[in-house]
Amino acid sequence: MHSPLTRKPCVHQSLKGNRFSEDFYAPLAFDAMGCRFEIIVDVNRSPFDQGDCIAVCEDLRELVFDWHSRLSVFEPGSIISQINRSNSETNLVLDDDMYSLISMCEDLRIETGGMFNIAAGSLMQAHGFQNESLNDLAGLDLNKAFELDPKQQSIQKIDNRIALDFGAIAKGFVLDEIKSELIENGITNAFVHGGTSSATGIGLGQHNKHWRVDIGNNYFVELNDLSIGVSENISNTISKNGIEYGHVMNPQTLASVDNNVSRVVCIHRSATIADAYSTACCVSPSLKEKLNNDSCSLIVFENDEEPTIFDPLGVVRTYSEDCYE
User: Fold this and answer.
1) Best exposed site among 50, 53, 67, 91 by fewest CB in 10 Å?
2) Helices (DSSP H) in 9-147: which residue ranges?
3) Which residues does residue 308 pair with via DSSP β-bridges, in sequence order?
4) CATH superfamily of domain region 79-157
5) What is the CATH T-level fold of the domain 25-69+169-321, as seen in this structure?
6) Could you tell me the strand order of the sheet in which 92-93 lies?
7) pLDDT tens, 204-246?
8) How far apart are CA 308 and CA 311, in angstroms?
9) How big is the CA angle at 58 (ends 56 and 64), to the nearest 5 degrees?
10) To 10 degrees, the CA torsion angle through 40, 44, 48, 51?
């Protein structure tokens, strides 16, 4: 039994045409965070019948909508929009969840040498990816973008030009939240994906086979309590003076990434970390050796060449190695 994904790069957007029995799975699909989310629960190995499984998933849909409303830069009332509108004199108090998320992002910024940085939203605005243009970036230091006060659980921007963006990590973070809720409800075999860049496999699929995700070039990965994050340089581009620029920004150069990497795939137990690491390696491919360890596998695609694979988890396969259908 293949996972509910077809042989295309990254994660497929639709479950239609994939082989799984409707009495075995309870699927729920909905649109949020600019993509298609799908939650698939193994009914036979859950404490609920199909109807109750779907009810659990519907509650999770509300969780996703809630985080969408908090993190969307396109929602004027979102928390992130309030932060971005604030000036360097304003100290904004955050709720527990939001403060924890930003603190985690700061830890990941440090771990990746600044290559993953939610303050890169400043560059998305500057280069016109959010219908704005901040031309003056002189002196902007994204490694000193804001200060966090753990006592007040507050954030204060250091520079008025700073704008945060969680696009590189939001879906992975939400998938981790979904996974925690499913397990807390006793559902230990499920598959969840958010669009074409983030997925998590909980337990095993039908016939006790690993959940499987196609990553292109005849490769797929097997997920058993693991998550996958994908970052692509060319998934969103803008044209300037006849040149196409990708949306992945380099926080050090303050410009679009300029290297030969077309796509980075990261497999990690945490979908949040998988998203952050894939973005960081897309910005700086040399990070693959630092971030690769016994809890993380990385696949780096450069143009049309065979990918560079670091797979201590032992989850990367080719279809020529496929041992079951």
Assistant:
1) 91
2) 50-71, 79-85, 96-111, 121-126
3) 300
4) ApbE-like superfamily (1.10.3980.10)
5) T-fold (3.10.520)
6) 92-93, 154-157, 146-149
7) 987 788 999 999 889 999 999 999 999 987 655 555 655 555 5
8) 10
9) 110
10) 60
